[in-house]
Amino acid sequence: MRRPVMLAVSFLVLSADSTAIAAESLSLAIALEAGTRAPVLQVNGPSGLSCRLEHADALAGSGSWQLLTNLTLSATGAVAIDRTTTGRTRFYRATHPTDETGLLLWIGFDGTLDGADGDRPLSHRGASYRPGQAGQAVYLDATGHIRYPISQNLESDEGTIEFWVQPDWDGTDTEVRVFLEAGDNFNRGLLISKDGASNLRFLQWGDDPGTPAVESDVERGLGFDGSHWRKGQWYHLAVAWRGTTRELAFYENGEVIRTAVNGVHLPSFGTSFLTIGAETNNARAAVAAFDELRIFSRMRTATQIWEDFLDPGGAPKNPDR
């Protein structure tokens, strides 16, 4: 017998036969699938709203939230069946991705270049798949690049970009390797790369608020020695910025390495797309594998980035939860 339970609360427990966790403005209808102990989960909310359904398995002893599915709500709601639950207790919640973390783009590269919310690349070349930090990763060869639209995926005035990268070269390599670029060099741009002197770089080009002129080519950024990098090893990089306070931060493997308070103002980017694995013009290829790329509209905290590093495939963490 199907026993629906309608909830519109912030935190409750969902076991195989009763209750749920739901975010504000969302509700979960819970019922048992006929003839099984697997719950049918119906998420209800404003039509067209994109949300995430996440779970943590209490019996697995893990406090990390795992993404179960992405849902876009229709007039009648969206339904997911958790066929893996056979009496085990799980904790569920439904969240809008931008409500709590500011998540704009999440690409897991698990056999597809599409994002978690259906974002599709504008173009790509030289891409193949290999084992990653969480499922599969994408490998971009010397001709490789992937382009995504900037609109709704990257904000210029504030944000965080984080990803796992596995170089096909040692850190002492003398080639310039570009991991990601939005805009262009010296023209309202953002760049994450390794330079020819083994330095990992996070650069921005825009307007210096300290001068009366409105510029697009003033360079500010951070860097640190990357000569310790080794071919075939995975590294987690994150960059964060906030234009209003001019803050910049650069992280490696969850640890903050460099910070500054001299950033430029970026009212917009000089291109309509961002490029993964090469410069805007597809030059200076990364020749590396990428996994779990995430872009946020907020400058994430050191704690959040550390927790994301510890759980490569888990949903982005928010200490305020």
Q: What is the average of the pLDDT values?
A: 83
Quaternary structure type: single chain
Estimate what percentage of residues fall within beta strands. Answer: 35-45%
Shape: globular
Q: Could you describe the largest sheet, including whether it forms a barrel?
A: 13 strands, antiparallel
Distance between the termini: 34 Å
Which structural class best describes the helix and strand composition? mainly beta
**Unreliable stretches:** 1-23
The total count of strands amounts to 20
Return Rg in Å: 21 Å
**How many helical stretches?**
2
Helix content: under 10%
Helices and strands, in order, run as EEEEEEEHEEEEEEEEEEEEEH
Describe the 3D structure.
The protein has 321 residues and is mainly beta. Helices cover 4% and strands 45% of the residues. It has helices spanning 97-100, 302-310, and strands at 5-7, 27-32, 39-44, 50-57, 66-72, 78-81, 90-95, 103-107, 123-131, 136-149, 158-167, 177-184, 187-194, 199-206, 218-225, 235-242, 247-252, 255-260, 273-276, 288-296. Strands 8, 9, 10, 11, 12, 13, 14, 15, 16, 17, 18, 19 and 20 form a 13-stranded antiparallel sheet that branches. Strands 1-2-3-6 form a 4-stranded antiparallel sheet, with no helix packed on it.
